[in-house]
Design goal:
This is Methyltransferase. It is built from seven helices and nine strands. It is of the alpha/beta class. Helix 1 (19-42) packs across helix 6 (212-230), helix 4 crosses helix 7 and helix 6 packs antiparallel against helix 7 (236-246). Bound molecules: S-adenosylmethionine (SAM).
């Protein structure tokens, strides 16, 4: 246990086997997979690649990778919590319970591709974890890191939405040590590790019209509600009104951005 962050990701904060978490991961995938898979396609992922999907969640990206690399390649989908990966099956795909902060390199290393989405920002030891991920690349192998970025919620014209989303950011920072500002420095963490062909982009989904992003944030806010209230980060009334907004087909705003950075290990 860390004195500064009394809990880890799955310690009753997020994660777990509940159906609500499955729906939250599915909504996340609906919002983000098109962006992720387009980038992976542009980066040349193809038949025969050996891929590591870190913190695979419900495995939607791992399934896409398995289809892309075919049985000639291999995909290792890892997570500390396999609750939502049990049904994942494809030729060349294996699922592994694995703590990326401390377990040895997964079987299959070194990899042609290492991908982690919405994982490192939640781990206080993210810099050491990034060192580990880079060390698991083969020469010329590609790493892609995606992280929530603390932008542009603070400029929301809707005070209820702004306060509730800020409370999500603060409660994760105070309970598990999430850093939603880390990705503002992308692609710095990859440049400083001497990767080549480094690039970056960002994705800023509209949240509203009761779309998948709004649903995902509503489930996240509901899940974090007790922690937000016990830490006094927002009132119950604010949280409830924000939940109403997130199910209102007439409400639209921008939620957190996703920052994406990629690079290749030198040959
Ligand atoms: C926000 S979810 C993202 C899931 C998936 N990557 C996606 O984008 O759809 C974060 C995932 O990281 C996993 N995770 C958290 N800490 C981890 C650790 N130390 N090692 C491996 N996975 C971890 C969680 O269990 C969870 O499945």
């Amino acid at each position: 246990m860390n004195d500064a962050w009394p809990r880890r990701y799955a310690d009753e904060v997020l994660g777990g086997a509940a159906d609500g978490e499955r729906r939250r991961l599915a909504a996340m995938a609906a919002v983000c997979d098109p962006v992720t898979t387009r980038l992976l396609d542009e980066l040349g992922v193809t038949a025969g690649w050996r891929c590591l999907e870190v913190g695979a969640g419900a495995g939607s990206v791992a399934a896409w990778l398995a289809d892309r690399v075919t049985a000639a390649g291999q995909v290792t989908a890892t997570d500390i919590d396999l609750s939502h990966l049990a049904g994942l099956s494809a030729p060349g795909l294996s699922v592994l319970r694995h703590d990326v902060t401390r377990d040895p390199a997964p079987p299959g290393a070194p990899f042609d591709l290492v991908h982690a989405r919405f994982v490192l920002e939640h781990l206080p030891e993210r810099e050491q974890v990034l060192d580990r991920l880079v060390s698991w690349l083969r020469p010329g192998g590609t790493i892609v890191v995606e992280s929530i970025a603390s932008f542009p919620v603070a400029s929301s014209p809707n005070p209820t939405f702004r306060q509730a989303m800020t409370a999500i950011e603060q409660v994760l920072a105070r309970t598990i040590g999430t850093d939603s500002t880390w990705a503002r420095g992308f692609p710095g963490p990859l440049r400083s590790r001497h990767l080549v062909d480094v690039g970056t982009s960002s994705h800023l989904p509209t949240t509203g019209g009761a779309n998948a992003s709004a649903y995902c944030w509503a489930l996240t806010l509901s899940r974090l509600r007790p922690h937000i209230l016990s830490l006094g980060l927002a009132t119950a009334d604010t949280v409830d009104r924000a939940l109403d907004l997130l199910t209102d087909p007439a409400f639209f705003d921008l939620s957190f951005a996703t920052a994406i950075a990629w690079g290749r290990a030198p040959e």
